[in-house]
Amino acid sequence: MNGDKGPAGRDxxxxxxxxxxxxxxxxxxxxxxxxxVGLGGSLGEDDLEAALRGxxxxxxxxxxxxxxxxxxxxxxxxxxxxxxxxxxxxxxxRKAARPREG
Length: 102
Prior knowledge:
- There is one protein chain.
- This protein is mainly alpha-helical and 102 residues long.
- It has helices spanning 17-24, 29-38, 45-53, 60-76, 86-97.
- It has one domain.
- It is globular and about 30 Å long.
């Protein structure tokens, strides 16, 4: 791990922000799916579950819609938006791949 911290101070694993955000929430899968579909998402509930497991590749757009549904949940509870959007994960991956100076 490179020491970057994600939600609740946990180490960030590239590609894991959706999974981490879902596990930090009190949402059940059907609740997250309804919120995601309400934002215009087009995945079925089974595909959403596969995406959260990391077994279904997502477009940046679909990733961001799921992230938005999760972040809406957290901000409605007065918390920050801890789930990274696709471009934030790409930036994290770039930083992690750079050699450390020091």
